[in-house]
Amino acid sequence: HRYGWLKEYDSIALQQAVINLDVAFSNFFNPKLKARFPTFKSKHGKQTSYHCVGIKVIDGAINIPKIAPIEARLHREITGTLKSITLSRSTTGKYYHQQHSLRLLKQLAKTQNLMVCCVLHDLNLASLYADRILLLHQGKL
């Protein structure tokens, strides 16, 4: 088959790549935005992330569809069903994951009238879920 090699990759990743490419070219051809021509990301640049579903936690690893299991140091036992995960790769090539517990915390805070305090190092993730953000720099607010 002509496109058989596409079955080697996760369908969600392929769909997101097409969406990202469409947005990049739409921005480029929009005269109001004056965006540059779309370019490929360098693996030496900023970290990249990928959201996926259908994952399983196995002995010391996270099993993700279509790729080999990624070694993981789980500092807590995962209870319940893990439905999705966001994987981030740093410029050094190390992978990090963030469970969608923040979505659950926000929902619980809303339905149970709770206040939740989290310490996060990812400002993008914090801005998605937090009502208020405090920043520390050298131990000062």
Keywords:
alpha+beta, 3-stranded antiparallel β-sheet
How would a crystallographer describe the biggest sheet? 3 strands, antiparallel
Helix content: 25-40%
SSE pattern: HEEEEEEHH
E-strand count: 6
Distance between the termini: 59 Å
Strand content: 15-25%
Detail the poorly predicted runs.
none
Report mean pLDDT, rounded to a whole number. 76
C-alpha-based Rg, rounded: 19 Å
Please characterize this protein's 3D structure.
- The chain has 141 residues and is an alpha+beta fold.
- It contains 3 helices and 6 strands.
- The chain has helices spanning 11-29, 101-112, 123-129, and strands spanning 48-53, 56-58, 61-63, 70-71, 84-89, 95-99.
- Strands 1-5-6 form a 3-stranded antiparallel β-sheet, with no helix packed on it. Strands 2-3-4 form a 3-stranded antiparallel β-sheet, with no helix packed on it.
- A hairpin with a 6-residue loop joins β3 and β4.
- The longest helix is centred in the first third of the chain and has 19 residues, at 11-29.
- The N and C termini lie far apart (59 Å).
- The mean pLDDT is 76.
Quick description:
The chain is built from 3 helices and 6 strands; from the N terminus they run αββββββαα.
Could you give the topology of this structure?
Layout: H1 11-29, E1 48-53, E2 56-58, E3 61-63, E4 70-71, E5 84-89, E6 95-99, H2 101-112, H3 123-129
